[in-house]
User: Fold these one by one.
Assistant:
Number 1:
Amino acid sequence: LAADMPAMAEVNIESANGLVTVSGRVARDLVGKPLYLSCYLIEDGISTKDYPQLGMNDEDAPSDLADVFRHNGVILHYFTAEAIGDLLSIEANGSFSVTYPMVEKAGFGGTARRLVAFVHKVNKDDPYDTYVLNASEMNLGDDDSIKEIESLRS
């Protein structure tokens, strides 16, 4: 279904000088409509050794499940103030740009981090009329960069 929908927004993420900037443009038909922006710091590759998954010891679970299963997409930080995202301020030409301070957060010992941002429509009266217009992600690094962040907090 998503592949049949036209792209209604462009979303870009940049991170530099301790800031995260999400920018882009929305379709002309959406200028003046209430759209929201959500932006998260995500951690991937979290081992089940310290954070087990329910059902890992079930009798029918694969014997190597604990070795291969990893938690991905764990949200470490919400950059937006509201749980449903922040109302996006869109210029008359459809462009937008929002800047947040980058955060240094200890995580769960994962292997990679990324920023994820998406522009979405929210209809609080009809959840079936709520959808993502477009999204973007930015890889922040592997295990070594996570260890550097965690050592800064120690």
Note: Residues 144-154 have pLDDT under 50 and may be disordered.
Number 2:
Amino acid sequence: MGLYNNRIVVKVGTSTLTNDAGKSDLRTTDRLVCVLSDIQNMGYEVVLVSSGAIAVGRNKLNMTSKPDSMRMKQAAAAVGQCSLMYLYDKFFGDYDKTVAQILLNAEDIEQEEKKENLINTFNALLEMGVIPIVNENDSVSYKEIESEDRLFGDNDMLSAVVAVLCRARHLVILSDIDGFYDHDPRLYPNAKLIEQIDTIDDSVYALAGGTGGMRTKLQAAALATSQGTDTIVTNGKHPEALYDIVKGLHAGTLFPGKI
């Protein structure tokens, strides 16, 4: 079956949703929600894949440092997910939008019956004009927090999996930089933004370096583009770039779909 040309999956990370002090960045969250609501008003079906539960939970629990044990990370995720959805429900509600929460772990994708039910749920929600908000089910799935066996990895791969399940035309991964560069722009002031990458090969992975955040974005783009989904990496602090993306204009780095 083909892709839904009006269906877009947007992934937002903790760095976008929080400020330098580690608190919720309400201004950026509100701007993102406003743009997503506006895009839906333009006729697009929107899915939001959101990180941030552990960070929000840590603040809610007044933890002075990042939790290091598994049980404390899962406790923070459980508390944070409630607060995160409260914020999303409030902000989207201000724009007269209805949201739904979907929490996933690897079994939901790997077992065919669960996978089929999940696809049906996404389709039903989108057909009703609901905006699904997706996150890893960190409070019960230890693999998705720190195991080497984790399927998703920092929600980048999760967003690609969701895009494939939903047969979305666009996957937009919001990062803490403007896109994919030939060098790390935080270390090399003269680094140049690469506007389009047609093939994700070893040379591209070498530019990403190590196993950090940009490498997981490349892995996500490789999966999504292999199923025909155009993938864009752009700066999450400027959500207005989504307007250009749905219009087919340049924003960040484009990885064109292969089919």
Note: The first strand starts at residue 4 and ends at 12.
